[in-house]
Design brief:
Largest sheet: 5 strands, parallel
CATH superfamily: HUPs
Domain UspA: 6-150
Number of domains: 1
Order of helices and strands: EHEHHEHEHHEHH
Structural class: alpha/beta
Strand order of the largest sheet: 3-2-1-4-5
Distance between the termini: 47 Å
CATH topology: Rossmann fold
Number of strands: 5
Number of helices: 8
Protein name: UspA domain-containing protein
Helix content: 40-55%
Shape: globular
InterPro entries: UspA
Organism: Kitasatospora putterlickiae
CATH architecture: 3-Layer(aba) Sandwich
Radius of gyration: 18 Å
């Protein structure tokens, strides 16, 4: 295992983040690096609202939920911890982009983020309320190499299923 080499990956539990997590695990194995999955969270309503009305018991509950979401993401992706790689999961309080770029602070780190194709409405809402995409933030602010992982082809199939498209019809048309 390389001394100090790390592959840091953002995790949310979404299918897109699980795709990035798998790619990060492969990269960590290939590099002999430590895999550092990171789940960043903020209090419901944001930090500003929490500072106005702090509630330590709610803060503990949110932390526990974030810890559980990390465990669930690792279980869904690998059935636990991935084999053949050392894993150091981190659940941190903070905005996702800044949390990832502050953790990936070494020149030899690799930061893996999901870079997806989103619809116009979702992109507009994200820009208005969340300040843009995490992958763009990381690409602009990281001090290390950033690997932007495109969505899995399975995501298009899932979107089709949600819209009520029968995938057998698509397969028949392709044949």
């Amino acid at each position: 295992m390389s001394d100090g080499a790390r592959v840091i990956v953002g995790v949310s539990g979404s299918l897109h983040s699980l795709t990035a997590l798998h790619r990060a695990a492969d990269e960590a194995r290939d590099r002999g690096a430590v895999l550092v999955p990171v789940l960043a969270w903020t209090p419901a309503g944001g930090e500003h609202n929490y500072r106005l009305r702090p509630c330590p018991s709610l803060l503990r509950a949110w932390q526990e939920l974030a810890d559980a979401r990390m465990d669930q993401a690792l279980d869904e992706a690998f059935g636990g911890l991935p084999a053949g790689v050392r894993v150091e999961p981190q659940v941190v309080r903070g905005e996702v982009g800044p949390a990832l770029t502050s953790l990936a602070d070494r020149p030899d780190d690799l930061l893996v983020v999901g870079a997806g194709r989103h619809g116009a409405l979702r992109t507009t809402v994200r820009r208005l309320f969340q300040g843009g995409s995490v992958s763009r933030y990381c690409l602009a602010h990281a001090r290390c190499t950033v690997l932007a992982v495109p969505p899995s082809d399975l995501q298009a199939d899932l979107r089709a299923l949600r819209r009520g498209v029968d995938l057998r019809e698509l397969t028949d048309l392709a044949a």
